[in-house]
């Protein structure tokens, strides 16, 4: 009986350790501050922007989808609704509000009530200066678990207009021939799934001050 009593503290420690481990983010979680490319899983193109403005609609910097995996204009930085809400190295939770900042131009992924040029859905643009834009730069990460995992196909729902970041396959001509139109759609469907691909990922940590680049 005494031997069984001695085992109780040990068993308790094992159970508590298991519970604590269950709350830790998985090693593959996407984290704040990471720089990555996003692949539309239906159309196999990466979210892209460049210093080419729309010739209609808002006239803001255009956002497209490209097939090339090595294009440097397809990198986006993961940021929070505010910088304090998404400290570097913190895992992004499903349902969290984020901003996606285009690395090469410093503009944020943005949408608003303008028609997209090809499909007449809702225009998606890149907006702002040096990562600062407005409230129409905010998107909610929709995924099935606790955290946004790199292997997950996720959706991005726009907070201000409730559309989903989507591609349906329409292609541009000159000067961005072959690139796909990116737009907002009001319904969740197979055109608005995205997956994290190439990039520099900050190692997940429950302590945002402790992180390493992978």
UniProtKB/TrEMBL annotation:
Q: Which Pfam families match?
A: MIR
Q: Name one GO cellular component term.
A: extracellular region
- Which ranges carry the MIR domain? 27-81, 89-144, 145-199
Q: Does the keyword Signal apply?
A: yes
Q: Which InterPro entries match?
A: MIR_dom_sf, MIR_motif
Q: Does the keyword Membrane apply?
A: no
Localization of this protein:
Secreted
Under the heading SUPFAM superfamilies, the entry gives: MIR domain (SSF82109)
Name of the featured protein: SDF2L protein
What organism does this protein naturally occur in? Answer: Nycticryphes semicollaris
What lineage is on file? Eukaryota, Metazoa, Chordata, Craniata, Vertebrata
């Amino acid at each position: 009986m005494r031997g069984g009593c001695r085992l109780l503290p040990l068993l308790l420690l094992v159970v508590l350790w298991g519970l604590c481990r269950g709350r830790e983010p998985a090693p593959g979680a996407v984290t704040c501050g990471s720089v990555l490319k996003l692949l539309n899983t239906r159309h196999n193109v990466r979210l892209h922007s460049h210093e080419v403005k729309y010739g209609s609609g808002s006239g803001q910097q255009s956002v497209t989808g490209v097939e090339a995996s090595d294009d440097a204009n397809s990198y986006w930085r993961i940021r929070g609704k505010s910088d304090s809400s998404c400290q570097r190295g913190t895992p992004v939770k499903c349902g969290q509000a984020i901003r996606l900042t285009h690395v090469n131009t410093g503009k944020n992924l943005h949408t608003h009530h303008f028609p997209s040029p090809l499909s007449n859905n809702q225009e998606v643009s890149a907006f702002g200066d040096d990562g600062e834009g407005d409230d129409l730069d905010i998107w909610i990460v929709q995924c099935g678990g606790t955290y946004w995992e790199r292997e997950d196909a996720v959706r991005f729902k726009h907070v201000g207009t409730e559309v989903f970041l989507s591609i349906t396959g329409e292609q541009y001509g000159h000067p961005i021939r072959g690139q796909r139109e990116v737009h907002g759609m009001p319904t969740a469907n197979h055109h608005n799934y995205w997956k994290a691909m190439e990039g520099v990922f900050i190692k997940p940590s429950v302590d945002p001050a402790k992180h390493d680049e992978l």
